[in-house]
């Protein structure tokens, strides 16, 4: 989990590859997939590079292999996959492969011209189809090696090639061992050592089959900067949960869970992996994500007490109609005239206590169940939203500490948390306080949280809306003033600090240069292997050139945009989390409509035994198809996209920049597959 929390440390290494062993070394690195080569010949045309002739020969061979593949398929044969992992062939084998494939291609052209006379020869040629795929893989690897060698520069003595590559610090011993083993075969020695660099290193986050889909969600927004906090470990929990809040239904979640579980259990079958359907591949790559989404939907479905829109009585209800009837003395005539009855929780014995888990099933029979659920889900959405956003702001603390920007803790993180929690955190406090302190006996005079929250910003009071607790107006006015006081700190704090630090460094720079001129090069301390992590990273993201060109107006404008975005975002983002309530309501109502318009009609028509056997089968089939097509696919996709938006916009922008780039190692893995 340590590598998931933050990207691994990556170093820039310089490789000295003797010309005799360069091909072997690069081929070995391609098998291991450890390094990403940097192009040291970016200014050189592709037609002027050292190995352009070898690359062209490989491309001509690829064209020949393509022709042979088409002929084999036209003959109705199936190309078997190569057995095992094929290494890149030695350069001396390229001529042999070229001559053999060209001979096969020419003979196939001759056979196709006079098939009847040369049928026997065609049969012999078809036997070569078994090794056709192997040769094609080897040529692809050889071409990849030469393309990598074209990115190397030549030493002044022309005896070795010099390459630069990014490599994980954890993989440096494996890199050294691979170079040593591959170069010893040619009787020479290849060398790799770490060099300092001012460029931002690429981001490397190792994933497995479980975490890959969640990391993909984060990377779709943007690859994180080097050593930036990675949201993926928290997305593993928060994404399925927010999806389930909108999709909560035991039955629908169970169907999704079983579908994902089937893919997980069959993930090692060759037929499943080899499927070419794009829709299937999309579902298969996200099978573990679907698994958790279904599992969390089952959990929230139990909380909502909904299974295909029907409530279940797992535990006895906390409401008693008999106690209300005995207390009120309802007669048969009264019941005949009043189809709607009210249960008063203040009457002894009517309300026995809360339901052990989730919503009481009696609410599904109540006429005001929609109003009750709307109030519950709306307040729950606001609570989840404020907690989610506050957690994102807290995660920014780890970035500030790691990058040496400790001034941002007091000048940005603290004002942001004060502004967010002072206003909307207080709204969450009001909701929870009212839940805990306002009982049924005081329901008639219960204060309105909405009116209190509006009066909080207007510094006013409504006499008809009683206070929740003593001195409430003073507390609310203090919180508003405190939140507004954070705005100038957030706006001016960081720019003033950067300008002060900039001027202080300019004053110290002449003295530092004199000391550097006096000191010899060998007397300097050891250079950092990765200059970006020690200078740019620890100095708050500004190197010496940027410090020398610091423009106050640009810094102030950037901070003003950040301040306006955060302050307005606290309002809009909190409102955005109400989509949890809206989507949950829409899903519940669609489920109810589908049950009422399909299954309820079918059950009404099928009361007789003979009719039920004929009617219920097609009606249930229609219900099942529409459940999958509308509620699982369409509603599931809608909830997925909304959960994605909440993570990208409302959560990740609090601490995650997403302005990095991935480490793309030179590897033969795609060729082997």
TrEMBL record:
UniProt GO MF annotations: proton-transporting ATPase activity, rotational mechanism
One Gene Ontology CC term in the entry: vacuolar proton-transporting V-type ATPase, V0 domain
Subcellular location(s) of the protein: Membrane
Keywords: Hydrogen ion transport, Ion transport, Membrane, Transmembrane, Transmembrane helix, Transport
Membrane topology (UniProt): Multi-pass membrane protein
Location of the region described as Disordered in the Swiss-Prot/TrEMBL record: 524-544
Transmembrane segments: 241-266, 287-304, 355-373, 380-398, 418-436, 443-462, 474-499, 609-634
Keyword Transmembrane applies: yes
A Pfam family per the record: V_ATPase_I
KW Ion transport (keyword) present: yes
Function: Essential component of the vacuolar proton pump (V-ATPase), a multimeric enzyme that catalyzes the translocation of protons across the membranes. Required for assembly and activity of the V-ATPase.
PANTHER family cross-referenced by the UniProt entry: V-TYPE PROTON ATPASE 116 KDA SUBUNIT A 3 (PTHR11629:SF21), VACUOLAR PROTON ATPASES (PTHR11629)
Stated family: Belongs to the V-ATPase 116 kDa subunit family.
Entry protein name: V-type proton ATPase subunit a
